[in-house]
Design goal:
The complex is a heterodimer of chains A (202) and B (192). Chain A is of the alpha+beta class and 202 residues long. Chain A is 57% helix and 11% strand. In chain A, strand 2 and strand 3 form a beta hairpin. The model of chain A has no long low-confidence stretch (mean pLDDT 87). Chain B has 2 domains: 108 residues, Methane Monooxygenase Hydroxylase, Chain G, domain 1 (Up-down Bundle), CATH 1.20.58; 73 residues, Alpha-Beta Plaits, CATH 3.30.70.1450. In chain B, helix 1 packs antiparallel against helix 2, helix 1 runs parallel beside helix 3 and helix 2 runs antiparallel to helix 3. The chains are: A alpha+beta (202), B alpha+beta (192).
Chain lengths: 202, 192
């Protein structure tokens, strides 16, 4: 069990705290299903770490809104913020529960993964082939969201996962990417990554 | 593996996918209900939460009724845990929608974080004779034509998470978000 850190108050805007909690919790769900279905231990462990991060953010957020409330009216409005933040925390807990299926060596029945992969239209893993046009490009240069409605949510290089890679991150051949988005875009992206046929210049 | 067993597996996975899709749809709708302070949308989330509870029970029963070998027990436990996680996610979504239902005006901090835009949510029924009928969402090109984004499709008492190949039927209610101007164009498109 990881050591829990003492959370000290830091002046961070509530908006930033909440936004990070919301984004992380949603990202974690997608990552957790990927970890469970591909039985990926390293990814599952990273999700458990992210869960700690969300817990810390939740503490900081609670502290910040306690300081911010000056009167009954403030308290009423901020109680809503607290309820929503704790829901985001609950979502990240659920993602951690899914990750724990993998870290506790329980696993999901392999047949399920096979069937699931066929019907899951939002998540995909692809390995960047040596002659893929993606290799060498920065995540930001690809403009994936606008071009095909997909988003790289994690990238595995050798043994490490890079969660939510920065726009400046270079993609290399051999990287394993987890992508989420619309079905058609995901298929297009998989072809691009694995370069089944040449589709340059279109 | 016997064909019967294979069929049973597919049924289990189908239910799991429905649980997963519904719980994620609920999160989208719950945040949208906050963004637009929409009671109607928040109530939709509550309805879906009841549906997930029922689905979850029938999913668990189905898993427990399947005849699995001893070595497969762990894999089935994993399945049950996945189901529990979807239920927890649905609960969290319901908790978000309750803020709206309790009449707490969503704090601007939340609305700013969800999307920094003046968006509304519209419920638009699809009439007979509308050009949208029998089209898939990809073919209907609603975001391109109207600037509205489809959050969910309500069909009878079911809410469907929109997928590119979801077909629009007469009587569907499109739940869509976007700028106020888009609502009118979507309504025009759904009538005729």
């Amino acid at each position: 069990m990881p050591a829990l850190e003492k959370v000290r108050y830091k002046p961070v805007p509530v908006r930033d705290l909440f936004l990070e909690m919301k984004n992380l919790s949603e990202l974690m769900i997608d990552l957790a299903y990927s970890a469970a279905l591909f039985n990926d231990r390293e990814l599952a462990e990273d999700i458990l770490e992210l869960e700690n991060r969300v817990d810390t953010l939740d503490y900081l957020l609670e502290m910040t809104i306690m300081i911010a409330a000056r009167d009954a009216h403030d308290a009423e409005a901020l109680a809503g913020v607290s309820a929503v933040a704790s829901a985001a925390d609950k979502i990240s807990d659920a993602a951690a529960d899914i990750a724990a299926i993998v870290t506790q060596n329980i696993g999901v029945h392999p047949i399920v993964s096979q069937v699931f992969e066929k019907v899951e239209e939002r998540l995909m893993q692809a390995k960047v082939s040596a002659d893929s046009s993606l290799a060498g490009q920065r995540v930001g240069e690809l403009d994936l969201a606008a071009r095909m409605g997909v988003d790289i949510i994690a990238l595995r290089r050798d043994k490490d996962w890079i969660i939510n890679p920065a726009k400046t991150e270079h993609i290399r051949s051999g990287d394993v990417l987890i992508v989420r988005g619309v079905h058609s875009g995901i298929k297009e992206f998989k072809e691009l990554a694995e370069q089944k046929h040449q589709r340059r210049g279109d | 593996m016997s064909q019967e067993k294979q069929a049973r597996f597919e049924e289990i996975v189908e239910r799991l996918v429905e649980l997963k899709d519904t719980s994620e749809l609920m999160i989208d709708l719950a945040y949208s209900s906050l963004l637009s302070n929409s009671r109607e949308l928040a109530e939709e989330v509550q309805r879906l939460e009841e549906r997930v509870d029922k689905l979850h029970t029938s999913f668990e029963l189905l898993v427990l009724q399947s005849e699995f070998d001893k070595e497969e027990a762990k894999g089935f436990l994993g399945l049950i845990r996945l189901g529990v996680a979807t239920e927890k996610i649905a609960d969290a979504a319901a908790q978000i929608s309750e803020v709206v239902l309790r009449g707490i005006e969503p704090h601007p901090v939340l609305q700013l974080s969800i999307r920094a835009a003046e968006e509304t949510v519209a419920y638009v029924p699809v009439a007979k004779g509308s050009p949208l009928v029998d089209k898939t969402l990809t073919e209907a090109r609603i975001p391109e034509e109207t600037g509205m984004w489809i959050l969910a499709i309500r069909r009878g008492n079911k809410s469907i998470r929109p997928k590119p190949d979801s077909k629009i039927e007469v009587g569907d209610v499109l739940i869509a978000s976007g700028y106020a101007e888009g609502v009118e164009s979507l309504k025009r498109l759904s009538k005729r």
